[in-house]
Amino acid sequence: MLAKSDLSRWLAALAAEFRVVGAVSDGGAPPAWRKLEPGDTPVLDNLRWVMPPKEQVLPGYEPLFTYCARKGEEEITSAVPAEEPTLMFGLRPCDARSFAVLDATYLDGRFSDPYYAARRAQMTTVAYVCESKRWSCFCSSVGDPVEWVKACDLAITDAGEDAWIVTAFTGKGEKLLEAGGCMSAATEAACASRDAIWEDLARANEHFDAQAVARAVDWEEPVWAEIAGRCTGCGICSYLCPTCTCFDIQDEECPGGAIERYRVRDSCQFCDFTKMGHGHNPRPGKKERTRQRLSHKFKYLPERSGMSGCVGCGRCIHLCPVNTDTRKIIAEVMGVHGQ
Amino acid sequence: MPEENQIAGQETVKAWEPRILGILCNWCSYAGADLAGSARLSYPANVRIVRVPCSGRVDPSFVLRGFMRGFDGVLISGCHPGDCHYAKGNYYARRRLTVLKKYLVKMGIPEERFQFQWVSASEGGRWAESVSEMTERLRGLGPFQGVALQDKPAPHREAAAV
Amino acid sequence: MSVQAVLANQLAEVRREARRVLESGEVKTVLGYRAGPTAVRAMPALITRPEDTDLLVWSPACANNLGLYVRQAALEGKVAVVAKGCDARSIVMLIQEQQIPRESVYIIGVACPGVVDPDRLADAGIREEKLTGASWDGAEIVLESPEGEARPGRESIAKMACLTCDVHTPPLYDILIGEAPAIEPVDGLSPIPEGTEDRRAFWAKQFDRCVRCYACRQVCPSCYCTVCFADRASPRIVSKRIRGQENWMYHTVRAMHMAGRCVECGECERVCPVGIPLLQMMRELGAEVDELFAFKPGMDPEAEPVFGVFKNEDEGPEP
Questions:
Q1: How far is CA B140 from its chain centroid?
Q2: Which of A321, B75, B137, C24 has its CA 20 to 30 A from that of B27?
Q3: CA A295 to chain centroid
Q4: CB C246 to CB B68 under 8 A?
């Protein structure tokens, strides 16, 4: 158990061994994941939404390499980052799970992405288990969030009486308990509180089985055109989705004559995402693009990797400028074609 | 004339000199600047000139890019109202650039850093004077701190050559 | 009559009018609002069948600017729009810029005291899923829940644009439903600091957060270019790097494209996922344009776009 007042002491002890990353709000902005500085308090309540942690392994802008040619000599400088032991502190179950989904794309056997791999390699995960769900949350509809918590190294759950109960799942996690000598033995009441919260977390009103949804998603769903009618074509759903990973690669001149190849976040919702050099665009309208995103998330990824592409965080729902609700779309898809 | 280190990635270690982006219309101001040259009028070499057909061609993005890239000042010069080679271009420029100037102040770029003026083909002296004045003003103001957070310097300060 | 009943009457009128113009064939499409996932979120609705007009809603949940859809919808035929003041200003702006003829829209004007911004509700500690409805009592926004009615105060829960709005009655309409109470715009809510250097630092910090999702651009009815400058590869006007300085340039160039064209509906600020105060920036720019040229876009369909014309006596540098 950890008294909440001891949190900063524990974090300071952890910082001796890790680059500790938490979600911090700078000046009222939505909390974003960054390295914790002394005095920072990571957001550890589910009343506020946080930016997706994918930024830590897939930064929005990432130099890949620079190329320089001087007097016939060529120099290529790789920008693969050095591995660094990183501790993601306070991942909600949905966000904790998102790394597994990202791994399915970026650490896929033959095609491991060295930039992603370097950032992901020495990552330790500490989950924060939400006491309650926000209106847009649906993690338990797309999977078992308690299992997602148990896939982390450590989890902190509210134990009442201004304390956290801290549960380790791996050897790495056990070691974290020792840092700073801040932990005390867990009381029975604390364990009961944790069990109640975990049980609540797993409860869901409706369950969307990944493979059933995958089978139900159809090319000709009328819902695609319906959404397209109001979709603004911005990138919010995909940019703020913890499991969306598309990127663009650009080569640009740097001052001084070097050329930098970099990668930036991109969205399949942008009108020119699939536009080709000769002008043809196989996804010319919002209907095609809406269909693509939801099919990728709920059909192609589950079929290919066995896991749901969606972790039910709800960001796409509460941030969508036109209030399109992903859950309603799945329900409609299931209603039309599913059981 | 400040030396420029042409090797990428190496910062010149020299006393700071204001860098001014000059955008001059071909028919009046550019000719005026040329006249300053042929008349051997001396003025600071801190301005880098870009020639456009008309001040009306100046897109606000040119100015904004200049500040993004780390120029300390931007100076736009065109034909006097009534004398535009294309009859009306500078009138449109006047509206647009007046608004841009006020917008820049709202965004934290003081007036002194963005000037626009009318210089005719015969006003070589006026051109030289305006560059001198602006350079002096900018020396007083100091380097432009950039449009991004301080720990991420403007691209041109990452390497010497612009 | 309760405030809910007053609103219900207005809604009935909206539906009646929408149904009438569809049934008569006067219009092909009705742009309005339909219920969204919570009582304070509505969705834009494009209705082509008279029976679907029963889906229409009208309440403080109706935050979207429907002017966004008008230009495209008008290509299919005449379109009726349920228009608040800001929506109507966008429609007038489109007419001013000759994007649509006046005859292509039938404006069902609705007097609007101000809509809710759900993010501000959350900041005020109100859980929107517990709400069952929202209505107006004069200028005040009334929230309904099983516990009863609550009036948390317009200043803390309304969309920011509504607090400085002066078009609670739409500037152009074919029919007007409801009557707007007199509402004083609220000043002093902008987070932008005074002082030039403070402003430079402020905007550097704001744009460092920008993720270039382009939601600000996509929800803006004034941003209707088929290819945006930010998407051009040749020439590359602004880099695609998602980084403070390039983000700054994207926003400032867009702001200059919007100068004299922005109707200050505040959608950009509402939808920004990282909370950049874009509306406040555009209001400052709008005030400068108004001061220089006595022009506010989206008010008079006959007026000419401010940068498409000039006067000999325009303010400018010394001759």
A1: 17
A2: B137
A3: 19
A4: yes
Phi, psi of B68 (to 5 degrees): -60, -40
Model confidence, pTM: 0.94
Say whether C273 and A236 touch across the interface (CB within 8 A): yes
What's the rounded mean pLDDT across residues B79-91? 95
- B61 and C246 within 8 Å at the Cβ level: the answer is no
CB-based contact B102:C288 (threshold 8 Å) = yes
Residue C160 and residue C137: Cα distance in Å, rounded? 19
B59-62 long-range contacts, CB within 8 A, separation 24+: B60/B96, B60/B97, B60/B100, B60/C252, B60/C253, B60/C256, B61/C229, B61/C237, B61/C238, B61/C249, B61/C253, B61/C256, B62/B23
> Please, what is the angle between helix B89-106 and helix C244-258, to 10°?
130
Q: Does A259 touch chain C if contact means CB atoms closer than 8 Å?
A: no
Query: Which has the closest alpha carbon to A194: A228, A222, A154?
Result: A154
pLDDT digits (tens, 9 = 90+) for C212-253: 999 999 999 999 999 999 999 888 999 999 999 999 999 999
Give me Rg for the CA atoms of chain A: 22
* β-strands A154-158, A32-35 pairing: unpaired
Q: How far is B57 from chain C (nearest CA, A)?
A: 13
- ipTM of the complex model: 0.95
Q: What is the largest CA-CA distance in chain B?
A: 47
Domain ranges for chain C, please list them.
Answer: 3-177, 196-302
Looking at residue B29, the DSSP 8-state letter turns out to be I
Q: Scan for tokens 């993005």, then name that residue.
A: B61
Do residues A153 and A126 touch, judged by C-beta distance below 8 A?
yes
* Contact of C183 with C139, CB cutoff 8 Å: yes
- How confident is the model over A242-251, as a mean pLDDT? 95
Q: Is C273 on the interface with A (CB under 8 A)?
A: yes
Question: What is the SS3 assignment for A47?
Answer: coil
One-letter identity of residue A251: D
Q: Is B95 helix (H, G, I), strand (E, B) or coil?
A: helix
The verdict on a CB contact (< 8 Å) between A135 and C127 is yes
Residue whose structure tokens are 């004034």: C222
What gap in Å lies between CA B7 and CA A257, rounded to an integer?
8
Helix, strand, or coil (residue A26):
coil
